[in-house]
Structure prediction request, 362 residues.
Amino acid sequence: MFEARRWASSLMAGVLAAQLIPVLPARAFSRLAAWAITAKGELLLRTSPNLDLDAFFKDGDGRYGDRIWIDFPGSPQRPRKIPGKGAVREIRVGMPERGVTRLVIEFKRGVELDPSKLRLVGLDWDSWRMRFPLQDARFVAMGEGILEREVPFPSGPTMPGLSRAPLRTLTVASLPWVRRGAYRVMLDPGHGGKDPGAIGIGGTREKDVVLDVSRQVASHLRSKGVVVKMTRRSDATVDLPPRARLSNQWRPDAFVSIHANAISMRRPEVNGLETFYFQSFQGKKLSSLIHDSILRTVRRKDRGVKEARFYVIRRTNSPASLVELGFLTGTADAADLADPAHRRQLALAIAVGILNYLRVAG
Prediction:
């Protein structure tokens, strides 16, 4: 028999009955978008609109440790169990009944929570926090999804302009966590073989740049347990229909085509990053996350996330994105794309964007 209590709906502490209710706001997101446990011992949530959160506590027994769970309207795309770290034994995302997503945080046996000190507090219209008041417990940061609203998923091009100075220098340690073996990604290095693609300043060829970047992205994704295939792994000629057909036969969770742009050599002032999707909310989300990750990593003019009818993203059934890394005919972009160190940062940024998409898409 367990003892269940409710968290007070005011800022005052109180020991109440079975259901635990949040403080404020009364409405938040329609489904779970992201969660994280911080090293400080906090649970952070981001949700979708029009939602009343239901939160519960259950004492541990001989089989389970103390558990907190929160219910969200909407079914999870992928029920899963995630091994915990530190004081947390396991995180579970499941569906206790049709149309309900349940996030369960189970603590290790011997870690005892006092439910009268627990509060699920609304920080903003889309974000929540719960602190775990455990002085001697060790917490390790972990989570899924993106807590910050850093990508608006615009309906048209994003606001143009030059991105700010690099906000970060990425390393392999920067790559987000995803469940190993759970996802498949198809990478499509543009052109190849007899088709060099764009040829830019200094004779830099698009097919060489994008193959190098794609190979690095593949390596980073594989290091996180993602299963990766490439439409070409060498300087080979591959027509467009076989690329889309290969993806549709394999049915990856995401398809990412990597290209470099070009315009007349007489227009060296034209530079910038463009990312494209075709008539798909998931494709738009994937494109936006990759685009934003690149802009937060390298200095690049932002030419926007746009809808387009490129063959491979139009004929691919999976969520698809086509990234134009920059203009090989642009003075600034050409110098960057010819630089191996810059390409390493681009590859890490693309990998981060893809991994963040997989975490959000579930």
User: Anything to note?
Assistant: The chain has six helices and 17 strands. The CA atoms of residues 29 and 65 lie 29 Å apart. Confidence is low (pLDDT under 50) at residues 1-30, 150-166.
